């Protein structure tokens, strides 16, 4: 393996790779410009105030504290020895996959054999699908057979366009489905964008990246904006470097097609690692320069904020007067006719997914009520609450919700709007589903915990019923709010790049002359390019907001009007805690772990349960139950394998009327929480519905 890499990546080619990372210099100029603009926007927001609509559900501060997602053994193909070996995999709260020789090695705290960060990867379950991606990526003659043979019928493959591929397999289909759900969750988490808590660095980075790509003629969504800043920049470099090296190296590789494909993957991985190392170093240096300058910029902003705002408004008025007629003409002829059809294509699968989240939430809460009625002791309640606490982070439980979103079809937008694929929107909606599920579960926990004080065990079932109904109604409202925001952002993400691509050739040459209207001291914070994009954004935003508002007024897909619920309707609820409740410790009499470091990591509670297979040999450790691991069962007793839609649980607890609060979601007349709410979706299949939607004329 080393010979292949060293032979084809000599000093000359490595210097060529280093030279390609000079894109960081050009990106750095964009970043420094956008950093000052982002700081201006942040300080202005801080001074002028404002905020988002207050949600009805609570948000958990650190939901995965002292938790792990999954662990177990499977077979991995080792490139070095070209053999399959048993490996123990551990997926912690970071969603990185750590590989160990055995479970015993993990339990003893030995160093892992490797760690997989899943940013940019795709989780596959068939060699046919993998070969299709492999042949498309290498642009080679299609291989009829894979270059490795899987010892079982249930492979699991992590594929990446640039980095090393990872091959696993398991013994049963049930294990394959569970591991596939876990791998998909790792990918989903790693691809979930940059931290929104960084109010300056994150918008500066994303805007700089967008402007850099637009300068190269690339508008629209980008599938490889995955991982942290260094990983994203490495993908940016590899986007152009990868095809150049492939054309240079692949024709010189020797051997059969399968061997050449394998060698090229190893070379590509080595290049990717070198590029990542360089982009990480350069980005850290760039970020440090901006952070050092931040105090001076911040001081200047706070001193001259009023004058800067006045100057910006003056320049904005001049630019809008020039470009607005062209923008409005484009909106009328090329955008307005298609907003509703694109919105409908987004609403259908998204609303199905959020409806499925509600169904699963309702099913789990009913199970708590049922178990509490059978045994109303506080110790048993603690056990049941502890099990549902991590429901949102159970990839197997949530898979049916995520699967609804996979039906999103934006066919017709790829060429016109430069939408590479719907994966950006699919993964974002899936993350929002997980967040709403966790918010609902956390709110239910807090309400139940608060209600336990001063109540007897006889009232426990009624208390749980009231909390359940209250949470479900709050979920309905927050689900509507989150989906409307998602629809608006998705429409902007689709339409704005298209408009900029159409308008830039005629408008951009006229923008530099407006720089003369900006005082030199304010030129760091006022950029004419940003003002032009703001004008485009404002011109189409009103049409998008109107389309979403019309859908809410008509109650399509169970969307609510913004005026239906007061934003401050339940102030007492938000006085409750943000931390996860230790149900086992408080009601079950089990003391929480006080240990830290590696020992605490190895004793973390696991969210997904292990699989037990009778008759499996001992070395295959994923088949063994781990004693003392608390987890959420995948199926109810006697209901294994049944779909949630085929049989809904019946609430055994007598309905207790809820005291309705004026202006709160509890006061909205909704369907009974014991019935499945259909979010305005027809019984016909998603695919057939979306197939009738015309997104853009060819």
User: What sequence of helices (H) and strands (E) makes up the elements?
Assistant: HHHEEEEHEEHEEHHHHHHHHHHHEH
Topology, number of strands: 9
Q: How much of the sequence is in beta strands? A: 5-15%
Q: Which range best describes the helical content: under 10%, 10-25%, 25-40%, 40-55%, 55-70% or over 70%?
A: 40-55%
Strand order of the largest sheet: 5-4-3-2-8-7-6
Q: Give the averaged pLDDT, no decimals.
A: 81
Distance between the termini: 48 Å
**Which structural class do you get from the secondary structure elements?**
alpha+beta
Largest sheet: 7 strands, antiparallel
Shape: globular
Specify the number of helices. 17
What integer value in Å does the Rg equal?
A: 27 Å
Outline the low-pLDDT stretches: 591-600, 612-695
What is the number of independent domains? Answer: 3
Protein name: Niban-like protein 1
Family: Belongs to the Niban family.
């Amino acid at each position: 393996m080393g010979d292949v890499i060293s032979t084809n990546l000599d000093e000359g080619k490595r210097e060529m790779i280093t030279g390609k990372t000079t894109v960081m210099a050009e990106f750095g100029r964009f970043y420094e410009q956008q950093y000052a603009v982002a700081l201006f926007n942040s300080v202005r927001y801080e001074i002028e105030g404002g905020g988002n609509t207050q949600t009805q559900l609570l948000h958990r501060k650190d939901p995965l504290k002292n938790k792990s997602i999954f662990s177990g053994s499977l077979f991995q193909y080792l490139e070095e020895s070209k053999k399959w070996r048993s490996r123990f995999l551990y997926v912690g709260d970071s969603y990185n996959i750590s590989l160990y020789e055995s479970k015993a090695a993990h339990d003893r705290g030995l160093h892992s054999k490797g760690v997989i960060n899943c940013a940019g990867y795709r989780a596959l379950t068939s060699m046919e699908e993998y070969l299709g991606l492999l042949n498309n990526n290498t642009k080679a003659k299609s291989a009829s057979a894979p270059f490795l043979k899987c010892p079982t019928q249930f492979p699991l493959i992590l594929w990446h366009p640039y980095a090393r591929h990872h091959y696993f397999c398991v013994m049963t289909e049930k294990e394959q489905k569970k591991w596939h759900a876990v791998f998909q969750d790792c990918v989903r988490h790693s691809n979930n964008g940059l931290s929104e808590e960084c109010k300056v660095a994150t918008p500066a980075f994303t805007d700089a990246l967008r402007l850099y790509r637009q300068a190269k003629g690339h508008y629209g969504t980008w599938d490889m904006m995955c991982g942290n800043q260094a990983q994203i920049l490495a993908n940016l470099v590899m986007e152009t470097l990868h095809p150049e090296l492939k054309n240079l190296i692949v024709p010189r590789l020797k051997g059969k097609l399968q061997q050449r494909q394998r060698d090229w993957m190893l070379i590509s991985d080595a290049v990717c690692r070198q590029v990542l190392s360089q982009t990480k170093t350069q980005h850290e240096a760039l970020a440090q320069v901006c952070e050092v300058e931040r105090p001076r910029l911040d001081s200047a902003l706070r001193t001259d904020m009023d004058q800067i705002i006045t100057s910006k408004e003056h320049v904005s008025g001049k630019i809008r007067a020039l470009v607005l007629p062209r923008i409005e003409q484009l909106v009328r002829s090329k955008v307005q006719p298609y907003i509703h059809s694109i919105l409908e294509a987004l609403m259908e699968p998204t609303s199905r997914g959020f409806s499925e989240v509600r169904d699963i939430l309702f099913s789990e809460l009913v199970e708590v009520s049922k178990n509490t009625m059978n045994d109303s002791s506080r110790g048993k309640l603690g056990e049941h609450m502890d099990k549902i606490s991590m429901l949102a982070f159970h990839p197997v439980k949530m898979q049916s919700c995520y699967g609804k979103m996979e039906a999103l079809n934006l066919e017709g937008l790829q060429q016109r709007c430069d939408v590479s694929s719907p994966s950006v929107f699919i993964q974002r909606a899936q993350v929002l589903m997980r967040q709403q599920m966790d918010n609902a579960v956390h709110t239910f926990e807090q309400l139940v915990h608060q209600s336990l004080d001063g109540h007897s065990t006889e009232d426990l079932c009624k208390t749980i019923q009231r909390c359940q109904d209250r949470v479900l109604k709050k979920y309905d409202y927050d689900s509507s709010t989150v989906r409307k925001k998602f629809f608006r952002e998705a429409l902007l993400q689709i339409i704005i790049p298209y408009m900029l691509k159409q308008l830039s050739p005629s408008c951009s040459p006229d923008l530099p002359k407006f720089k003369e209207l900006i005082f030199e001291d304010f030129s760091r914070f006022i950029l004419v390019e940003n003002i032009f994009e703001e004008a485009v954004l404002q011109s189409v935003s009103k049409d998008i907001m109107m389309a979403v508002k019309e859908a809410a007024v008509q109650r399509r897909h169970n969307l609510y009007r913004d005026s239906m619920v007061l934003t401050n309707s339940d102030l007492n609820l938000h006085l409750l805690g943000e931390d996860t409740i230790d149900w086992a410790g408080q009601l079950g009499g089990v003391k929480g772990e006080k240990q830290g470091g590696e020992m605490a990591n190895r004793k973390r509670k696991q969210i997904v349960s292990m699989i037990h297979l009778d008759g499996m040999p001992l070395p295959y450790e994923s088949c063994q139950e781990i004693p003392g691991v608390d987890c959420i069962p995948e199926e109810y007793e006697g209901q294994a394998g049944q779909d949630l839609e085929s049989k809904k649980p019946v609430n055994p607890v007598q309905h207790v009327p809820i005291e309705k609060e004026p202006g709160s979601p509890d006061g909205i007349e909704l369907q009974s929480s014991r019935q499945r709410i259909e979010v305005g979706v027809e019984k016909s299949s998603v695919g057939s519905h979306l197939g009738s939607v015309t997104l853009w004329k060819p």
